[in-house]
Amino acid sequence: MDTPIAGGPGNLGLRIRHRRQALGLSTREVSNRTGLSTDRIEHIETRPFALTGTELVRLAHALDVTVDELTGPRHPGPPHQPPRAPALEPMRKEECVVLIKSGTIGRIAYTGVDEVIVVPVNYCYRDDLIIFRTAADSTVAQYDLAPIAFELDHFDEGMQDGWSILVNGMVRPATDLEIEATKGHITPWAGGTRDTHMVVEPRRVTGRRIRSW
Asked: What is the bridge-based pairing of β-strands 105-111 and 146-156?
C-alpha cells in the first residue's frame, strides 16, 4: 500500500534527512540498512514521493526509531509558506504539569560523591509528586530531603521543534501510602531489583517550547 506524501520533500522527507544526519549516517549507509538504492533515499529526502509501507518500516528500523516516531504528529506551517524564524517560548506551569502527568520516563540529576549524576527513570505523577523506583544501594536511594532536578523533554528533529521541562525540588523516600498509590504504575525498563520508591517534591516547575513553524 502506498502512502502519498505531498509538498517539497515533505515533512516526512525532512524528518528522515534530519534523523539520518543526527545519527551521522550517509545515504549509502541507510541504503545498506534498508535495501533501498541511494537514489531512492535521496529522492525521499529531497523531492515529493509515495512511500510503501515496507519502505517506511525499513527506514524507521534503519534510523532507530519507531514508525509512529517517524510519522507522528506534524505541525506544518501555512501551505506554500517557508518556516518562520524559530521562537523560544516559556511554558506555563499548568502546561508543564499536564505533560509530566502524561509521561512515563524522564531524567533525574543529583550530586554524587564527586560529580553530578544524570540518569533516566520511569516515574508516575501522583498528588503533585513525582515518584520513581530505584535500587536500594543506589546513591539517590540514600537521600532524604536533598536537592534534585527532574527533566522531561520531547523533540521533533524533522520539524526542529519541541519542548523541555525542568523541575527543581527535594528528593526523599516515599511513604507507605505513596508506595501503595503507585502500585502497577511504575515499571522500570532497566529491570533488576528496583523496589526502593523515591519522591521528588517539586519546588519550581519551568518549561520552554521552541517552534520553528
From this structure: antiparallel
Q: Give tens-digit pLDDT for 25-47.
A: 899 989 988 999 999 999 888 88
Identify the CA nearest to 7 among candidates 52, 47, 53, 50.
47
On the question of pLDDT at 74 being above 70, the answer is no
pTM to 2 decimals? Answer: 0.61
Residue tagged 519507531 (cell numbers): 66
Question: Which residue carries 545515504 as its cell?
Answer: 27
pLDDT top residue among 190 and 5: 190
- Where are any strands of DSSP class E within the chain? 2-5, 49-52, 87-91, 105-111, 116-126, 129-134, 146-156, 161-173, 196-211
- Dmax over CA atoms of the chain, in Å, equals 60
3-state helix, strand, coil in the chain (%, to 5): 30, 35, 35
Q: On the CB side of 193, how many CA atoms lie within 13 Å of its CA?
A: 3
Tens of pLDDT, residue by residue over 45-55, are: 888 878 888 88
At residue 207, the pLDDT reads: 96
Asked if residue 213 lies in contact with residue 102, where contact means CB atoms within 8 angstroms, the answer is no
Question: 132-144: buried (b, 16+ CB within 10 Å) or exposed (e) per residue?
Answer: bbbeeeeebbebe
Scan for cell 517506511, then name that residue: 56
CB 29 within 8 A of CB 64: no
